[in-house]
Every structure is written in structure tokens, then in C-alpha cells.
Amino acid sequence: MPEESVQWLTDSETRTWLALWSVSEWLPTRLDEQLKRDSGLSHRDYFTLAQISMAPGKQISMSELARLSNISASHLSHVVTRLEKHDWVRRHSDPHDRRTNIATLTDEGLEFIRGAAPGHVSEVRRLVFDSLDAEETEVLGRLLNKVLGGVSPSAAARG
After folding, report:
1. Which of 90, 105, 109, 137 is the most buried (most CB within 10 A)?
2. Domain boundaries along the sequence of the chain
3. pTM of the entire structure?
């Protein structure tokens, strides 16, 4: 794209973009540090367990889990293998469609996530919400959902 046709960011947009970029880089790092310190688990592994725990029946297809996690099927397979070694998740074929693999949270996995969640939620609160009042939290949520609408896989499919 020729430089003269680029609509450059305004000063305000640049400051906002740099703040968003910094948060998107540093927040996962800080959450990963807390989870590893308190639970011995990476943020990626915790997020995967949490997604399964929130799914109906505490089970979800591997393809849907990969989509929600924004990782490849191959990477997700490695994550789930680590979780299976702890007996937190088990993988099995969907009885209605043998081509589909399902990840199911075990009782041990549910117990683990319930133990890890309080520390994680406290850290999320400390890092994100303690500096915001209720109105700012609502505005932030609305604004992030607007941005998410343009970057999520469903938005990319719409073109």
C-alpha cells in the first residue's frame, strides 16, 4: 500500500493503540506468573481447563476448544495431553460423530480448577478491575466487545 494512501493514526489513536498493545502483552504474562507460582499451571493450560469447565456437561469438541483458545489443533492436542497426564481431562470420540474428538473435564480436573480459580480471580481483579469503578468496567467491556467483533474468527469469516 503506498504511503500516501495510509490513514495514519492520530495522536489519541496512537496512545490508545499502544496502551491496548501493552495490556495484551503484559496481562497474560502476569496471569501466567501467578498461575505458575500458585498452581504450577500455565495460563494456557488454565484457560483450557476453564473453557472445558464452562462448557455444557463439562465437555467440548476439540475443534471448538481450539477455536475458543485461538490455537491450532496440534497445539491444543499437546495442551490436552499435558492435562490428561494429571487426570484432569479425558479425550474420547463423539458417539454421534466418530470423526469428532471431545475433551471432558474429570472430577479431578474440576477439583483442581476450583482450587486454582480463587487465586486467579483475585489476580484478575487486582490487575484489571481494582483500578476501575463500575461505570468504567461497563464501558471497557462494551468497547472491548466492539474491538473483538472485528478481530474474532467469526468477524474474519465475514470479511
Report:
1. 105
2. 27-123
3. 0.83
